[in-house]
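Key result, reporting period 2: structure in, sequence out.
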């Protein structure tokens, strides 16, 4: 799932903040049909500690287990 699927032109960029980012994360996790037997879900986020990271932590509180890997900007390249 990608924000690119929601844009009319994949060449466009998106600049969202705060509640808009949180809403995007919630929509992806709640409204996407992940199937009946999802063993792993890998989520790639931009570096930093922004709103999307906070929203993920809040949304994923009820999962059976999670591994969260965080890289600094230099380590992520």
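The corresponding designed sequence is given below.
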């Amino acid at each position: 799932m990608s924000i690119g699927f929601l844009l009319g032109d994949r060449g466009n960029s998106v600049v969202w903040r705060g509640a808009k980012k949180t809403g995007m994360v919630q929509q992806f996790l709640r409204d996407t049909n992940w199937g009946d037997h999802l063993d792993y879900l890998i989520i790639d986020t931009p570096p930093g500690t922004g709103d999307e990271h906070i929203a993920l932590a809040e949304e994923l509180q009820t999962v059976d287990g999670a591994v969260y890997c965080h890289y600094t900007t230099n380590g992520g390249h």
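Residues 18-31 form the longest helix (14 residues). The mean pLDDT is 80. This case is discussed further under Risks and Mitigation.
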